[in-house]
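call fold(seq) -> tokens
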Amino acid sequence: MASRAIKPGVVVTPPELQSSSEFFKEGASLRVTGKLQEYSVETAIAVIADQSAILKIDTQHLREISFRVGSIFQFIGELHIQPNNEAILQARIGRNVDGIDLNLYHQSLQLVRQFQAERMNSATM
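ret:
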């Protein structure tokens, strides 16, 4: 029997989700953080921004979350690529993370990735 376990969301930033990125894959399980730029109640589509990049988030499966433009949110879900090569994250988890220092968040993400790369390199030697 095939296992259909939910995969953990790989931490990425919206600027990393370009079509040439290794993370830009249909169905990829991702975790993204950004500032809410807009939200449509009718379509349940949120738009978050980080640096100069934006990402659309489909929030139709989220309950009990209050969206405020200008607040910082983190979402975990699966990436869906539209025919026009636009990415939309189908969120399964969303939370408000107001108070997070996004610059410090980016620095810590880089340090974690550097540590993981060094650890992988030392394990293959």
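The chain has a mean pLDDT of 92.
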